[in-house]
Amino acid sequence: MDLREFDNQLYERIQTLLLRRELSEGTAAFSVATKVIRAGFDSLTWKQKFICLGRVVPLARSGSRLG
Question: Is residue 23 part of a domain?
Answer without folding.
Answer: yes
